[in-house]
TrEMBL record:
<keyword id="KW-0238">DNA-binding</keyword>
<feature type="domain" description="HTH araC/xylS-type">
    <location>
        <begin position="294"/>
        <end position="392"/>
    </location>
</feature>
<dbReference type="InterPro" id="IPR020449">
    <property type="entry name" value="Tscrpt_reg_AraC-type_HTH"/>
</dbReference>
<keyword id="KW-0805">Transcription regulation</keyword>
<dbReference type="InterPro" id="IPR018062">
    <property type="entry name" value="HTH_AraC-typ_CS"/>
</dbReference>
<dbReference type="InterPro" id="IPR054031">
    <property type="entry name" value="XylR_PBP1"/>
</dbReference>
<keyword id="KW-0804">Transcription</keyword>
<dbReference type="Pfam" id="PF12833">
    <property type="entry name" value="HTH_18"/>
</dbReference>
<dbReference type="GO" id="GO:0000976">
    <property type="term" value="F:transcription cis-regulatory region binding"/>
</dbReference>
<dbReference type="InterPro" id="IPR009057">
    <property type="entry name" value="Homeodomain-like_sf"/>
</dbReference>
<dbReference type="InterPro" id="IPR028082">
    <property type="entry name" value="Peripla_BP_I"/>
</dbReference>
<dbReference type="InterPro" id="IPR018060">
    <property type="entry name" value="HTH_AraC"/>
</dbReference>
<dbReference type="Pfam" id="PF13377">
    <property type="entry name" value="Peripla_BP_3"/>
</dbReference>
<dbReference type="InterPro" id="IPR046335">
    <property type="entry name" value="LacI/GalR-like_sensor"/>
</dbReference>
<dbReference type="GO" id="GO:0003700">
    <property type="term" value="F:DNA-binding transcription factor activity"/>
</dbReference>
<dbReference type="Pfam" id="PF22177">
    <property type="entry name" value="PBP1_XylR"/>
</dbReference>
<protein>
    <submittedName>
        <fullName>AraC family transcriptional regulator</fullName>
    </submittedName>
</protein>
Length: 396
């Protein structure tokens, strides 16, 4: 029987003290905390110590704190040492320090993030790719490694920002701008850049603005995570990868609950796949030099909800079916029919986040004749049913 059932029967329960060492100043952190709080509200009785800081505003447990468990985004050695010394059940929601003894982990699936990024950029016709992440102790190299691997698997190379200084060194804003601009100048164009996070994606967009580099026409920018404010106020607004932050928090809370009940942590991290790409102006371009193929792709993007076929595309574009097939394979690595289906399913995945729409309404809105056909195609592409995907999405 879970604790919430006992609580409803009026039995006396111990209120467990759980420290949540996750920052509240970022959209990512607030959403993870919301997921933790959601689990606690549904399944147990905890007092959450949210984002404790020391006198220097560093993430730190208060002196004399007597708790039962810790959920943390461990990003410094000092923080890691303090948590290990406490010898309490602990779960890490980041991968900067991934080798801590007896500490569980719930993290974003970096391979899935990389796949979303490369597929989004390939669909826009790019063949030049880069990764932007100034040296920092706030994130690991896993994101870069997985993106570079995804690019290489498609037969392309990934240009990486290497400014020549170590993480932790303080660099003046003007010097940082010069280094980034020098790197951008060296890149082939047009090029698509995955930035490690929304903050650095916005920094990259600012450098492009000051250097009169057109975004997205010359350089398309995709943020590796979503911060709604930063992405929406950037010029231009930034496309971003939507992470399942609430789900990470929820699963981290479930894991720490099990650990506080005596279950040991898994030796392998639990990985949570991102929701998808939120497309905005910073990648709204087709880096293809064939006007007929650009026209065909624009037609597909605009009219997918009508349930169009390849024949509809051919009526719009004066080109033979064989030429259309060959050019699509050359630029995108897939057929026109596969591109239509990809756009339909991406649209469906977005619409499943709308609580007001039924599965049938979602299917019709993205061009399927009925929910059954939508469900078969969705499962084949994403490995789950639309209903189960929605449950996970809305549980976040």
């Amino acid at each position: 029987m879970i604790e919430s059932d006992s609580h409803r029967r009026g039995e006396k329960l111990q209120i467990r003290q759980v420290a949540v060492m996750v920052e509240t100043e970022t959209s990512w952190g607030r959403r993870v905390i919301r997921g933790i709080a959601s689990y606690a509200d549904k399944h147990t009785l905890w007092h959450l110590l949210i984002d404790p800081r020391d006198h220097e505003q560093r993430s730190s447990l208060p002196d004399g704190w007597k708790g039962h468990g810790i959920i943390a985004r461990i990003s410094t050695r000092l923080q890691a040492d303090q948590i290990v010394e406490k010898r309490l059940p602990a779960v890490n929601v980041d991968d900067v320090y991934g080798d801590l003894p007896s500490v569980g982990r719930v993290i974003t699936n970096e391979g899935a993030r990389a796949e979303l990024a490369i597929e989004h950029l390939l669909a826009r016709g790019f063949s030049n790719f880069a990764y932007f992440a100034p040296p920092s102790q706030r994130y690991s190299n896993r994101r870069w490694e997985e993106f570079e691997k995804a690019v290489a698997q498609r037969g392309f190379e990934c240009q990486t920002y290497r400014p020549g200084y170590r993480a932790g060194r303080k660099i003046k804003w003007s010097e940082q701008q010069r280094r980034v601009n020098r790197w951008l100048t060296s890149l082939p164009r047009p090029i698509a850049v995955l930035a490690v996070d929304a903050y650095h994606a916005r920094q990259l967009a600012e450098v492009c603005h000051f250097s009169s580099i057109r975004v997205p026409d010359e350089i398309a920018i995709l943020a590796g995570d979503s911060d709604e404010l930063l992405c929406e106020v950037s010029t231009p607004p930034l496309s971003s990868i939507s992470l399942a932050c609430e789900r990470i928090g929820y699963e981290a809370a479930a894991m720490i609950h099990r650990m506080m009940e005596g279950q040991p942590p898994s030796t392998k991290p639990m990985t949570i796949s991102p929701h998808g790409v939120v497309s905005r102006q910073s990648t709204d371009v087709l880096a293809i030099d064939d006007p007929m193929i650009v026209r065909a792709l624009r037609f597909i993007q605009k009219h997918t909800q009508r349930g169009i076929s390849v024949q509809d595309v051919l009526r719009e574009v004066p080109i033979s079916r064989r030429s259309l097939e060959m050019q699509f394979r050359s630029y995108l690595g897939r057929s026109p029919a596969e591109e239509i289906r990809r756009v339909q399913l991406e649209r469906g995945r977005e619409l499943l986040g709308n609580r007001e729409m039924s599965i049938t309404e979602v299917a019709m809105a993205c061009g399927f004749s009925n929910a059954t056909r939508f469900g078969i195609a969705f499962r084949k592409s994403f490995g789950t049913t639309p209903r189960n995907f929605r449950k996970r999405l809305l549980a976040d």
